[in-house]
């Protein structure tokens, strides 16, 4: 349907831009964050004691805004059943949570700052929101596993398992917590890009549940 082409282009553009902003942690390859790739979770780059905290916070907020703006066009393109709507809602809620996550930063990077106590409400809220982001993502990925066509579904399954496994690594393999969060963030970004690639098929797959 030609009428959906502009909607599709908008959705794809917003998702790609959101993924680029969400992947801003890769700037650690060129800016001295002072964090350990193995031990430091990626979100510690936004901590109050990090030199480039504003760069990473702005990128996270930008990603959240674009995920939210992507919801209306995604809703137009998604098949008409509750599971696809759940996938779209997960994108929007993920965006809102990302913004809150950036606005409530850690007091300090606990993995490299031995004096860090992290007792402020902002610090504690950030830790909770980090877990919430993972749960929201797993819900969204899990919904795709159910309704995407088989070849696309296999990607969602692999990413779901990677994100879940890396979450376990974050909590139970502390020396590799930083690596686990980087694997997790990469897997999340990959599925979002695959989702953008899937959209050109969307109008052919719209159906009544």
Quick structural summary:
The chain has 209 residues and is mostly helical.
Characterize the structure shown.
With 209 residues, the protein is an all-alpha fold. The protein contains seven helices and no strands. The protein has helices spanning 5-22, 53-77, 82-103, 121-147, 150-172, 177-198, 202-205. It starts with a helix and ends with a helix. The model has no long low-confidence stretch (mean pLDDT 92).
Q: Please provide the count of β strands.
A: 0
Unreliable segments of 5+ consecutive residues: none
Morphology: globular
Mean of residue pLDDT values: 92
Query: Please, how many helices?
Result: 7
Largest sheet data: none
Rg, Å, rounded: 18 Å
What percent of residues adopt helix (DSSP H or I)? Answer: 55-70%
N→C terminal distance: 20 Å
**What oligomeric state do these chains adopt?**
single chain
- N-to-C order of helices and strands: HHHHHHH
Coarse structural class: mainly alpha
Which band does the percent of strand residues land in? under 5%
Task: Outline the secondary-structure elements.
Layout: H1 5-22, H2 53-77, H3 82-103, H4 121-147, H5 150-172, H6 177-198, H7 202-205
Helix pairs in contact: 1-2, 1-6, 2-3, 3-4, 4-5, 5-6
Provide tags for this entry.
mainly alpha, about 65% helix, about 210 residues, globular, single chain
């Amino acid at each position: 349907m030609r009428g959906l082409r502009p909607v599709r282009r908008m959705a794809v553009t917003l998702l790609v831009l959101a993924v680029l902003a969400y992947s801003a942690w890769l700037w650690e390859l060129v800016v001295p964050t002072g964090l350990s790739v193995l031990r430091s979770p990626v979100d510690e780059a936004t901590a109050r004691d990090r030199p480039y905290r504003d760069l990473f916070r702005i990128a996270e907020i930008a990603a959240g805004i674009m995920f939210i703006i992507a919801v209306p066009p995604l809703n137009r393109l998604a098949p008409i059943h509750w599971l696809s709507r759940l996938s779209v809602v997960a994108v929007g809620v993920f965006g809102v949570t990302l913004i809150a996550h950036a606005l409530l930063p850690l007091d300090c990077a606990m993995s490299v700052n031995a004096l860090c106590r992290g007792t402020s409400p902002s610090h504690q809220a950030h830790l909770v929101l980090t877990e919430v982001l993972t749960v929201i993502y797993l819900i969204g990925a899990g919904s795709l596993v159910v309704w995407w066509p088989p070849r696309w579904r296999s990607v969602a399954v692999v990413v779901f398992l990677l994100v879940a496994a890396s979450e376990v690594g974050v909590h139970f393999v502390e020396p590799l917590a930083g690596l686990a969060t980087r694997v997790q963030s990469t897997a999340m970004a990959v599925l979002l890009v695959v989702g953008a690639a899937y959209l050109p098929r969307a109008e052919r797959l719209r159906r009544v549940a």
